[in-house]
Amino acid sequence: MRRAAFLDRDGVLNRLRLENGVLRPPANAEGLELLPHVPEALALLADRGLLLVVVTNQPGVARGTLVRDDLDAIHARLRSLLPLHDVFACDHDDGGGCACRKPLPGLLLQAAALHAIDLPRSFMIGDRWKDVAAGRAAGCTTFLLPQPHSERTRCPPDHEAPDLLAAAREIVTLL
Known about the structure:
- Helices cover 34% and strands 18% of the residues.
- With 175 residues, it is an alpha/beta fold.
- The chain has a single domain, classed as HAD superfamily/HAD-like (Rossmann fold).
């Protein structure tokens, strides 16, 4: 069994853009912009033997605001830029009745089954309470990168860090 760092995508790995007062994920691969120090943080985690697995809600597909081919292209570009082991995306909307949409742990459970991941010895890093709740439900140690949209009181994390690099450094001390 291997350890993993599960990573939310938007707001953790890549920048969100403000559009009409609403934070939006990239609409295509060309719009993907990594946040500062992300490659360094992931290299630190990978050097410690952690699998790097993205787990992301992408309801734009179900809502018709994102084409599946664009989502696949975004993830292909992300894989070309970062040492990711795998990417799991829920493309359902709220109320879709799926088990994969965070705050449910379905994406983490799928990844664990496919890659023999030891969930209690793994970490979930996200910028929203739903990421923390999914990690907690899967049995992982959770990290929140707090933002104004985090709603941190809905599901308090095990740890908080100002950015992914700080979280990676703290994870290294926990290993």
